[in-house]
Design a protein that fits this description.
With 362 residues, the protein is α/β, with parallel strands linked by helices. The chain folds into 2 domains: 2-160, Glycogen Phosphorylase B (Rossmann fold, 3-Layer(aba) Sandwich); 166-350, 3-Layer(aba) Sandwich (Rossmann fold), CATH 3.40.50.2000. The protein has 14 helices and 12 strands. The strands form 2 sheets. Strands 3-2-1-4-5-6 form a 6-stranded parallel sheet, sandwiched between helices. Strand 11 (278-282), helix 12 and strand 12 (297-301) form a beta-alpha-beta unit. Helix 8 (201-213) packs across helix 9 (227-235) and helix 8 packs across helix 13 (324-335).
């Protein structure tokens, strides 16, 4: 059987889809598993132990010039390659109009996606031959794993967490001379995928100062469009700016850190998957659904109390912005062995009261 998995982006969502790929491989070792992903995130898929082949898209650029010769040529080449693969099943775990349209290009005998309310965009369902329910458990990883039942509706679902050991090994092989600081350091991520998730610069500068007072060198790791924010934080704190990094170099920088801190952004999910201590600050996304999963994870949940988990979206109404002292207390707990995640998403719900500072997870 040939199955093609569609999860185009972004970093954190791809990390949260790794367990599904592994579960598909574990259930059927003879399965030929392909993955379609956006070009900037290809390295997060290529080389995964469960994935046999990778196809890439550039949907953002294609939408900007849909009728250009280059766009038509690239889409045509992709469709030709997909039809040559001749997949039996196209499995869309993203659930958007964009990903559902890509599923049409595969020429698969059957196109399968998530049912409502788990599907992110309801019109995507028009592209599917069959829709599967997600998990009744809260976390999106468990909903992704529910798609394993595309192979057998009676399958008992595994409880896997993202395992980034393979990606770190790949990074070490690709960049054996990558240099990390020779002293204890913490990594701070200043940005996020959406403006409303981003932590204020003064707050991050205070956190950097707190790290420094705890004998940790604060390093600001930045991505596209974040350099100015990083420079502003560094100008008002003892923080240093990391050099530009690709995803493999970022994994290596993370791997040597005593702690990683940031808003709900992809790099904290990557850091959690390779076992590093992570402190995530969630302003208006629900950590019960989208929290980082790893052995040493602590979440500062600043969303409004009493909200229900939304199946199709991580968005949650924002509560009060946490102050730096609260965040630094959580940092101390994490550094001294508290806040080590070892529970499932339903236990996050039990702790949700919003009076508690930390949320434990897997």
């Amino acid at each position: 059987m040939r199955l093609i998995l569609i999860r185009l982006s972004a970093l954190g969502d791809i990390v949260h889809t790794w367990p599904l790929a592994q579960a598909l491989r574990d259930f059927n070792p003879k399965l030929h598993l392909s993955w379609i992903v956006e070009r900037p995130f290809r390295s997060l898929v290529e080389g995964h132990p469960a994935v046999d082949s990778v196809f890439e898209t550039s949907t953002g650029r294609w939408r900007k010039s849909p009728f250009s010769g280059k766009t038509r040529h690239e889409i045509g080449m992709l469709r030709t390659s997909l039809h040559e693969l001749s997949p039996d099943i196209a499995l869309d775990s993203q659930g958007t109009i964009k990903s559902a349209w890509v599923s049409r290009w595969t020429g698969a005998s059957e196109r399968v996606g998530l049912a409502r309310p788990w599907r992110r965009e309801w019109p995507a369902g028009f592209s599917y031959d069959r829709c599967l329910p997600g998990s009744e458990r809260d976390h999106v990883v468990e909903t992704n794993l529910a798609l394993l039942r595309v192979l057998d509706p009676k399958l008992p679902l595994p409880r896997l967490k993202p395992d980034g050991a393979w990606f770190l090994e790949k990074a070490l092989e690709a960049y054996p001379d990558f240099s990390i600081p020779g002293e204890d350091y913490g990594v701070i991520f200043p940005g996020a995928g959406r403006e409303e998730k981003i932590l204020p610069i003064p707050l991050l500068a205070e956190i950097a100062q707190g790290m420094f007072s705890r004998a940790l060198k604060p390093i600001i790791a930045w991505g596209p469009g974040e350099r100015e924010r990083a420079l502003e934080i560094a100008s008002s704190s003892p923080a240093e700016i990391a050099p530009p990094t690709n995803l493999e170099e970022l994994a290596l920088l993370i791997s040597g850190a005593r702690v990683i801190l940031g808003a709900d952004t992809g790099p904290i999910h990557l850091a959690a998957s390779i076992g590093r201590p992570v402190l995530g600050i969630f302003l208006n996304t629900d950590p019960r659904r989208n929290g980082p999963l790893g052995p040493r994870v602590c979440v500062c949940d600043a969303t409004r109390p009493g909200t229900k988990v939304r199946r199709s979206s991580s968005r949650a109404p924002a509560g009060a912005l946490p102050d730096s002292q609260k965040i630094l207390r959580l940092l101390d707990d994490l550094l001294h062995g508290k806040g080590a995640g070892g529970t499932m998403a339903e236990e996050m719900e039990q702790q949700k009261g919003h009076e508690a500072d930390a949320v434990e997870n897997w």
